Amino acid sequence: MALQILALLVFIAVFAVGALRGVHIGILMIAGASGTALFLTDMTVEDLVAGFPIDLMVLLVGVTYFFAIAQTNGTVDTLIDRALQKVGSNAVLLPLVFFLLTGGIAAMGAPLAGLVMMPVGMQVARKYNVDFALMGLAICFAIGAGGFAPTSLYGIVTYGTAHDAGIALNPFLLFGIAVGTYLVLLAGAYAMFGREAFKRRGSTAFHVNPRLAQVGAPGNHPFERETAISRGGASAADISFGEDEEDEAKFDESTVADPESSKLSSFGLVQWLTVAGMIVLIGSVVVLAALGRDPDIGLICFALASVLTLVDPKTGKNAVSKIDWSTVLLVGGIITFVGVLQHMGAVDMLGEAAKSIGAPLVAAFVLCAVGGLVSAFASTTGILAALVPLALPLVADGHLPGWALIAALGVCSAVVDVSPYSTLGATVVATAPESARARLVKILLRFGLSMVIVGPLLLVGGLVAPAMFFG
């Protein structure tokens, strides 16, 4: 047992050192896994390397490359522009509209790609007097919901890790659970912050310059890694937000004054092919799943991306730099280390400790709460990869349905990301007017920390318990 405890301490220390020093945790995890495996176990180098999740790497690279092409060639921006022009500006509907648009973007491989909508959403909130907290929460919830799509990062990591552990978790069911949870939370946000919006139901034509969505977004492109904004907070320098009348006038006249806007208003051959590729991707995944086949989304994305690259080689070449290699290393390093811990029996030891609590539902609640608490201050993607294996002993005795517990654990690890100490919450604060930031920090901190308890109550009480007793 001493070796297992030592290995777990090394695992925790790697997380802590990486967070404190701002170093990529995935790289440290690979180094830590190597030292632990070679000095504390009988594993060989071949055994260690075999633990790196090649299948997840192919999936993540293929998905992020295909949707990076869609972002680079202007297809995503054009779709956003057209959608916003059609929805009008009803104050009540605007947060829901941004939830739908942002969720669609977040489903395209990288959840944080949805952050491109935050500056636009905050501008719209100010223009139509929508509470900044409501708009910010709506966009954060959309990023979480879209992130659990079968084509996006949170969903890929959650159902991929569950599949590798022998737990049958339908990716579409996982997506539906996440969307349902976030819609419940959005309804709660409307109840708390949407009263003023219901008093103003007028609708006028609404136009937005998609270029505003790019202003000050984290990193150089929307497929930047999760730590693009420090989890310690954000400042106005990270994401700019104009507050004077001149900026507001520019915002109103954006589609008239900006020639780039008119260029985006028409689709070319490449954009139509990209949209067709998205339809083929979604359709093939749905059809194969309906036929009982396990679709390899990564390979499908590689095939579609290769067609787009042949049609437009320059865009394909530029999109290579936007492949989410950072997440590949993060997830790969953590899963490799977890594989070493599993070989040593450390994961089973922790799982048995959770199981020893006695009541399976209480153990599930504790596990989900721990996942949420840790995720509030660390990488959600990393937590998903690290905590899913801990649920296996709770599933092994048959008391808890594996698919429900893994889905609950995944969503509980993501709903806390509205905290101002996470990337999403920090972006909400940074894009809001300076006069509103102090209030937003308080609201988001309370809301985010409350999710540590509210999330498990919703998911364990509303999903795991019914599945346990009636499944």
- Provide the succession of SSEs: HHHHHHHHHHHHHHHHHHHHHHHHH
Number of domains: 1
Give a short account of the largest sheet.
Answer: none
Number-wise, the strands total: 0
Classify the helix fraction into a percent range: over 70%
Given helix and strand content, the structural type is mainly alpha
Distance between the termini: 36 Å
Count of DSSP-assigned helices: 25
- Give the amount of beta strand, in percent: under 5%
Uncertain segments: 202-265
Estimated radius of gyration: 22 Å
Mean pLDDT: 77
| Shape verdict | globular
Main location: membrane
Protein name: SLC13 family permease
Subcellular location: Membrane
Membrane topology: Multi-pass membrane protein
Descriptive terms for the model:
single chain, mainly alpha, Cit_transptr-like_dom, 25 helices, 471 residues
What topology emerges from the helices and strands here?
Layout: H1 2-21, H2 25-40, H3 45-50, H4 54-72, H5 75-87, H6 94-106, H7 117-127, H8 132-147, H9 153-164, H10 171-193, H11 195-198, H12 245-252, H13 254-257, H14 259-264, H15 269-290, H16 297-311, H17 313-320, H18 325-344, H19 346-355, H20 360-375, H21 380-387, H22 392-396, H23 402-414, H24 423-431, H25 434-470
Helix pairs in contact: 1-2, 2-18, 4-16, 4-17, 4-18, 5-6, 6-7, 6-8, 7-8, 8-10, 8-24, 9-21, 9-23, 15-16, 16-17, 18-21, 20-21, 20-23, 20-25, 21-23, 23-25, 24-25
